[in-house]
């Protein structure tokens, strides 16, 4: 392979649900969880990819450039801005829902969430933790990290996420996980 040839990686197509492109299947599952929670009046509005938080603005410096009669200063970028986009914002006034998250930091019923899959790398979790601290320090907003499968097992499994896409059978890891109706009946 010549030095001018570039290796092109094929990007996996992002999953789509109800015409919305998601970053992962876990995010689709959490979206379905939110739909069911809203349907049962456990939450109000929920937003997928709410407005981003700018944790750090772009940093620049000036470099002088000598022209014939004067010196012009050109701006150069030193550091790009650092922006943090969470996966979900939920508006909840239900104690059943608030108790699932860190209650002390549920302000005015707003819960912000970043969904992580089981296979997330330790590096991505470390980056999330740094963003979480920075977000709280700068804006007073606590970002909840939700590991989708663990969260579903501690609450309920959304009906659409419960089954395997190919065979249509219940996923083995969710055999003993209640549906929302079962969860509410047992007082969850």
Structural notes for this entry:
The strands form 4 sheets. Strands 3-8-9-10 form a 4-stranded mixed sheet. The chain is elongated, with a radius of gyration of 22 Å. The chain has helices at 25-39, 95-98, 122-139, 148-154, 159-162, 180-185; strands spanning 16-17, 20-21, 46-48, 53-56, 59-66, 71-79, 82-84, 88-91, 110-116, 143-147. It has one domain (16-50, 85-185). The chain is α+β, with helices and mostly antiparallel strands. The model has no long low-confidence stretch (mean pLDDT 86). It contains 6 helices and 10 strands, in the order ββαββββββαβαβααα.
Summed up:
By secondary structure, the chain is α+β, with helices and mostly antiparallel strands.
Number of structural domains = 1
Helix content: 25-40%
Number of E-state strands: 10
Give the radius of gyration: 22 Å
Note the gap between the termini.
Answer: 60 Å
Stretches with pLDDT under 50, minimum 5 residues: none
Question: If strands are numbered along the chain, what order do they take across the biggest sheet?
Answer: 3-8-9-10
- Give the H and E element order: EEHEEEEEEHEHEHHH
Largest sheet: 4 strands, mixed
Strand content: 25-35%
Overall morphology: elongated
Mean pLDDT: 86
Sheet/helix structural class: alpha+beta
Count up the helices.
6
